[in-house]
Specification:
The protein is built from 16 helices and no strands. By secondary structure, it is mainly alpha-helical. It starts with a helix and ends with a helix. Keywords: DNA-binding, Membrane, Transcription, Transcription regulation, Transmembrane, Transmembrane helix.
């Protein structure tokens, strides 16, 4: 018991210091990247969670406790957004996702308002918040796990599982314990498990993230290139890769994976990953495929012979599985919708014919 009373502030203080260091590094080097800003918000929520036990629920500390408690429940929601942005190299998040996170963030604020104004604690709201925390945590862990095969950044690909076990597992454990354990200052089994989880999660995250080189941590913000330019002297493997993709259109195959590409080339998978990332400049395999798909789609949209072909048909023929991912990829690459692109191409052709 006495040991826990001594270790508790030491462990929490050390964890807070490491997360503050991570925040400082992200703010200094990656402040213009959305994934980094979401990571900062997630770290602040984790720090709020670590600070909650410091405050007892009395008149003097009621407001700081309420603020830290409200911020702490947002950890799973920020975690969910962070893994989507980082692992998939997304530069933006749709408004529906932001609306979902904002709606979830309103729940603890409503609880605070009820307690402050009516002195009434809503059990229903409390349960709803915990269910939301579980849902966000599981969704984030699934995103991190499912896309590991497509990740071309070796350090990040290996870190996916560690992040799932560290932050995702910590969120699930902490939420589960708090659903069946009255959080107070007394040392007990639940508190011991939380402290162990804090040590493990902080250690894994710190060791994993601090070993990244700055250039490979996040994708640069701004529009992505239509296709990475070839190296001055491309390797034979890179040349074969381009031939298989551009000439044979392997990207059209349904469910085409990096394992299938490696088998088609007769090369070890790690060498194919290294060529796509190191020589061709892509951070994940989906972006690599989409680069060739979008090249085909641009050509089709600008082709007067295909002006009556539905855009969805063109997208599906090029290998996109549905309209949503295609529209997002096209807007990210071109800054306009496929319909606008086709209209501009038609207007450009008309202008050229009038000049001629």
């Amino acid at each position: 018991m006495t040991a826990l009373l001594i270790l508790d502030p030491m462990i929490r203080g050390g964890a807070i210091a490491l997360f503050l260091l991570w925040i400082a590094i992200l703010a200094r080097d990656h402040h213009d990247v959305l994934a980094a800003r979401v990571a900062i918000a997630m770290n602040l929520s984790i720090i709020a969670y670590l600070l909650v036990p410091i405050f007892r629920i009395d008149d003097a500390a009621r407001l700081p406790y309420a603020i830290c408690d409200a911020l702490s429940v947002m950890v799973p929601a920020w975690f969910w957004l962070f893994v989507r942005l980082w692992f998939d190299d997304q530069q933006r998040i749709g408004w529906r996702s932001w609306l979902l996170v904002a709606a979830f963030g309103m729940l603890p604020l409503i609880q605070i308002a009820l307690v402050a104004s009516l002195d009434w604690f809503s059990v229903e709201l409390w349960v709803l918040v915990r269910i939301g925390m579980f849902a966000f945590a599981v969704a984030g862990m699934w995103i991190a796990w499912r896309g590991r095969a497509n990740d071309l950044i070796e350090a990040r690909r290996g870190f996916r599982v560690a992040l799932v076990c560290a932050i995702g597992g910590f969120i699930l454990l902490a939420t589960f314990i708090e659903m069946f354990h009255n959080r107070d200052a007394s040392p007990d089994l639940g508190r011991s498990l939380i402290l162990i989880a804090i040590v493990i999660a902080t250690f894994i995250v710190s060791v994993g993230l601090y070993r990244f080189r700055l250039a490979e941590l996040f994708a640069a913000p701004g529009p992505q290139p239509k296709r990475a330019e070839p190296a001055a002297a491309p390797s034979p493997l890179a040349q074969r890769l381009r031939a298989v993709m551009a000439e044979e259109r392997a990207y059209r195959a349904e469910g085409f994976s990096i394992a299938m590409l490696a088998a088609r080339l007769g090369e070890p998978e790690y060498r194919v990953r290294r060529a796509i990332n190191g020589e061709m400049g892509f951070r994940n395999f989906t972006a690599f495929l989409n680069g060739f798909r979008l090249d085909e789609i641009r050509a089709a949209l600008a082709d007067p012979a295909q002006r009556e072909v539905p855009i969805l048909t063109i997208a599906l023929d090029a290998g996109f599985g549905s309209l949503g991912p295609f529209n997002r990829a096209f807007r990210d690459a071109e800054g306009m919708t496929p319909t606008d692109y086709r209209a501009r191409a038609a207007a450009a052709r008309l202008g050229d014919s009038e000049i001629g």
